[in-house]
Amino acid sequence: MNQIINVLFFNDKNYNAKMQLFFAVCFPFFTILALGIDSVSFTEHYFDGRQITNILSILYFCFFFWSSDAYLRKLMFAMVFLSYLGEFIFCTLLEMYDYRTAFIPIYVPFGHAIVFASGYVFAHTQIAVKKDNLFRKCFAAAFTTLFLAVGFFLKDIFSLIFGIFFFLLLKRKKWQNLYYFIALCVIFIELAGTYFKCWKWAPKTFGLIPTSNPPMGAVFFYAGGDILLTKIVDYWKSKTTNKRIEIIIDSENCHF
């Protein structure tokens, strides 16, 4: 009986793939629920729901993590720590945005990992892989239009500048759709977070560059972090693989 349960719920790749897709698809709905509870409106009408959002985010992260394969688990795990470092730099040191409270919420690093994992899962679906070229062309046109539109209509110079950097970064990564899918998830959570007033971007980044709330060009910083994350996990994976090879060789030498 235990073997059957283990096969069905832990080692069944098809089951895990379906669960990953389930959590990725539910990401927008979970985001609205979690950020809505942490919103200024919810706090004013009921009570401060920050702790509820913290618990919900950690639980969602854990279930998503549990359903993921080994590589995505490493990415999600490392993303939590890398995200907190990024928050400290961009929020605390550079003051590019502020949360509704004086400190960085606990749910934020876990939320970043959920955002990344959702984009990662979407990018590896069958339709995304089969229609890779079509998605690439559509994404390029859509994001170009988006950056130009917010720059012209909202006077968001920040997005115009860092939108260019975003495309330069994608060029170096051979225009992988992975970063477009993650960027879509980023834009959604930024729009939701600022709508609920969970955080707010400064009207001028670095005190100089006009910025909308939220700026679409923020996807550049997420993409840069995602690339760094992948490098860290790939290095981690290579070290782990090399260690396993050494153990196997040592065991064979001992045998003979």
From TrEMBL:
Bilayer-spanning residue ranges: 20-40, 75-94, 106-127, 139-170, 177-196, 216-236
Sorted UniProt keywords: Membrane, Transmembrane, Transmembrane helix
Official protein name in the record: Uncharacterized protein
